[in-house]
Amino acid sequence: MKQSKLWFTLFIAPILFAFIVVVIVPMIVGIYYSFTDWDAIRTGSWVGFDNYARVFKDKDFFNSFVFTTKFAIISVISINIIGFILALLVTQDHKISNFLRSVFFLPNLIGGLILGFIWQFIFTRGFDAVGKLMGIEFLQGWLSDTTTGFWGLVILMSWQMSGYMMVIYIAALQNIPQSLLEAADIDGANSWHKLKHITIPLVAPAFTVGVFLALSCSFKLYDQNLALTGGGPYNSTQMLALNIYNTAFRFRDFGGAQAKAVIFLLIVAAITLTQVYIGKKREVEM
Amino acid sequence: MLIRKKSLSLAVILILLSSLLLTACSGDGKQSSNGGQEKVEISIFQFKVEIANELEAAVKEYQDKNQNVKINLETVGGGDDYGAALRAKFQSGNEPTIFNVGGPQDVEDWTHKLENLSDQPWVDLALHGVLSGVTVDGKVYGLPFNMEGYGLIYNKRIFEAAGINPSEIRDFASLEAAVKLLDDKINNGELKEQFPLLEAVFEYPAKETWVTGLHTSNMFLGQEFESSLAAFDAKTLDFKYANQLKSIIDLQADYSPNAKTKNRLNAVDYSTQVEQGLAMERVAIIQQGNWVFGGVNSINKEVAENLGLLPMPVVGVKENTIPVGIPMYWTVNKDSSDAQREVAKDFLNWLYTSDTGKEYIVNKFYFIPPFEGFDKLQPSDPLSADILKFAEAGNTTPWVFMGYPTAWGMDVLGVNIQKYFAGEFTWEQVVEDSKAKWQEMR
Q: Which ranges does the record mark as transmembrane (chain A) (predicted)?
């Protein structure tokens, strides 16, 4: 017993040290800075809740929040549905199942910035060329207004993240005991019944994880946003992380940006923790 | 079995710990080597990506001459990114010896780090006005990089084919007439045979808010303020020439490929305008500066050789003029050691006043030198040559956008112009909102 305690400490120490140095300490320093008029060159003077007061008056920040929330809701749904369908698809016994798994997972291995630029090219040039050729007005001028910017981001995120979710769902699907499904077969259940009454309830823990990951990723989305739309046109597709970055590095309002970041942290934590709590309660124990 | 497991886990722990220790050390490993000895090591942190390789070559040449000097060059591109990266660099404790500042706001932010360079030999050689942005209380803190200018860049071959004489375009009326004539000829197919891709007169990248919010607007605010310092000190903005600004923006939008769907201008970016616009002869005129030469030249040499610069007229004020200014300045870190500062000053001096250095400035960097004494070396590309012509004739407007409130140009005015194109704002709202924000941000 004593031995295992020693090992426990030894194993946990390095990572705990790293965690404290790169996460906890910067967070505390960051919270401190949010109460100062820091300009990133010299530590500023104490200004109390001034920065926070300004954040709540900042219309752009509020718009970003609304936009991000909308985006998160839509993309959480689309990422998880697509991911689940892909997982169902590649767990069927088929010759190319394994090949498809890697294909679907591949987008996840490409960096967000590069993906953003690739999709920017597809939306502004590819779509435009096809649209002009076929005379479809709908495909022209993508990313030049808020609506197409929004859907562009959703498409990009779904394309990238679905493969990752697929892997999670594959693991969950493979954990479902074959005997349950066979028993259902004998009872005369069709595939829809099996999916609805056996597969989905048993995969619920994975849904909790999937929704959690998609939700926090969507809220924190930065590089794809920067590369695809850059917040444009007129900052209407600017998400929270980008808004915070711009406040800091463009407007040089580092204190205000820190305050926004602290609020952002609270929002993301509150939303994701609530989601996990609710998701956990709905899970079925086997 | 148990022993093997143990030794394995021990190894893992050791690796983890050592990697942690190593990363912790690597930060200051560099600096320890230059203490005490004669060898002086300095670092340059600069923003101009276009000259990164050539500057590296110049650094090598300087090092060959001065064996005891080692210069580390680091380049991070783009206006905003550079500012952010520079802050991060200073925060990390890895302060560079030589770095860049942009204008009055930067000078104010960094003033506690800037070495007074007033005693340097190049100060007396500087052309009129190029040091105004970095002079505070009579002390000069920066060495100007180069002169840059912009205006309406046009394709001489297309003008010739359409029978337009560019030397007659000296004011807004003649510009508008030429544009209309060109537009007619494009629409009735007269130029189709010679320029099959030509589809419009202008391309205007509203997505690049630095083009709209900084450059276009500077033309008009440059008439209102006489220097970036004046703009920097201004508490309020009159926007005297807002209507003239509207007319030049409308002109560029109305004769662009997106004239009927102006909101799509908000997705037009730099490469659409320059590489996939001007260089491909898809459009005839764009609002840009001499920095596009390299890009166009790499795509179509013939187009690049036939570029020229038209003035950007401010109706009823100063019409035959282009904005010419200094994009960035070299500065020396006050907190470096004496030896480092000496080397840094000597290097900058060498680069801008020695014959080898001048050769680099003009023929390798393609800079328009902001100093006297470059008589023998003339810019080789047509755009720089045109800018020099405007400058020599005194037909220039100063760059004042460095004196705008931080981010006002791009993130307020540039964004408002996007709203104008999208139909969210009327022009009056653009002007009102921009004025109000200026006051708020001061």
A: 7-35, 71-91, 103-123, 150-172, 202-222, 261-278
